[in-house]
């Protein structure tokens, strides 16, 4: 009798499939692992491909349908860009593994090879992220912001076709799709704090599914797990989502975990920053993230975020 296969739930975009196949390969390399299959799942984010992400109502825009399939048992694990995953997981689902982090930075892609500093005044820059929009306004208030949706190849086509003078994408996704040759500049995390968990692939499974969890445990990368734990704890404490202009980056050096985070007004006029360090353990990572979040909240982050949400409510059609 053949072993029951491990079924991976994934979106069908080029980047999502790369990530799922990468996990499939890592699993297949383990001795005696069952066959591993991919199951394509269409999410609200795929169906509503023209809706600006800041109108989408949170991170489950790209994950809810996959979570449902996982809980119903039609797939055994789910592979996500961890930055798309809510900090409050559905009951019965656990984040079982975080793969080694790729470059967490944002990348600027321009038609003429310009950097952020040399883009001409009034250049049209495409991005789907409020975080990028806010940091862009702070760094270059003269640039024009334009909404940008679609998968990575589509966004590159729109740039090449002249819809934009520049676009901003995650460096990790471009690297995975072998598209780094299009990058004009990798943006400094000090200027463009990355999205929480950007560059990390997360693998979820049912909390009690020991038969699946045993295959995922060896895939977990300690440094990525520590960094993601701190960043996600910070975001959870602030109660942000993809509609909040917040960035954070945690790094592990010399057995210490360090984190830097920023919240920025959408017009770039005001930015709050906080940082901290602590021992490199999971428990300490979570409390470090919460402590830095509390520092931001003490500076007025909640009021700034509430103000920006009110502004977005007025802008929404």
Descriptive notes:
About 35% of the residues lie in helices and about 25% in strands. With about 325 residues, it is α/β, with parallel strands linked by helices. The chain has 3 domains: about 1-100 and about 200-220, Periplasmic binding protein-like II (D-Maltodextrin-Binding Protein, domain 2, 3-Layer(aba) Sandwich), CATH 3.40.190.10; about 105-185, D-Maltodextrin-Binding Protein, domain 2 (3-Layer(aba) Sandwich), CATH 3.40.190.10; about 220-315, Double Stranded RNA Binding Domain. Helix 8 packs parallel to helix 9 (about 280-300). The chain starts with 5 loop residues before the first strand and ends with a helix. About 45% of the residues are buried.
Form type? globular
Helix content: 25-40%
Order of helices and strands: EHEHHEEEEHEHEHEEHHEEEHH
What is the residue-mean pLDDT, rounded to a whole number? 90
Largest sheet: 5 strands, mixed
H/I helix tally? 10
Portion in strands: 15-25%
The first-to-last residue Cα distance is 57 Å
**Which homologous superfamily in CATH is the superfamily of the largest domain?**
Periplasmic binding protein-like II
Mind telling me the C-alpha Rg?
Answer: 19 Å
CATH architecture of the largest domain: 3-Layer(aba) Sandwich
Q: Give the strand order, joined by hyphens, for the main sheet.
A: 2-1-3-10-4
- Topology, number of strands: 13
Structural class: alpha/beta
Count of individual domains? 3
Fill in the CATH topology of the largest domain.
Answer: D-Maltodextrin-Binding Protein, domain 2
CATH class of the largest domain: Alpha Beta
Which residues form runs of ≥5 with pLDDT under 50?
A: none
